[in-house]
Amino acid sequence: MDQNRRQLMGVAAMLAASGCVTEALAAGAPALADHPMVARIWHGRTSADKAEEYRQYLFDVGVKKIASLPGNRGVQMMVSKSPEQAEFMVVSYWDSIDAIKGYAGADYTKVHDLPRDKDFLIDREPLVRHFDLGVNFWQG
What we know:
Layout: H1 3-17, H2 23-28, E1 38-47, H3 51-68, E2 72-81, E3 85-94, H4 97-104, H5 117-120, E4 121-122, E5 129-132
Antiparallel strand pairs: 1-3, 1-4, 1-5, 2-3
């Protein structure tokens, strides 16, 4: 175990003892990403009446494809609904920016619209965001 990880685990244990974090978190956390990864985040909105149809379409045509690509470590789709609209967020996890470029090309920050996105989305966003994954902690 490297020095930084030991220090972080010591801080987590101290916080747990003080009641600031749960013991489950302190037992193995902060869990630094064992494997460096990049999170790619896309966001879009539909009208409420198209939300369910788009959710299924996004899963079938987008999420499943992303999950099958080389260098992809996983993908999540989130939905937030209101009476007027639904917001969708897709977070995909990648081994590296190079892995993303294998799918998205050199201009990897550009959104790659699905064929029917124009039928569903309000104000299509031109760019996706990327973040290095610094902590990867899931409670089981």
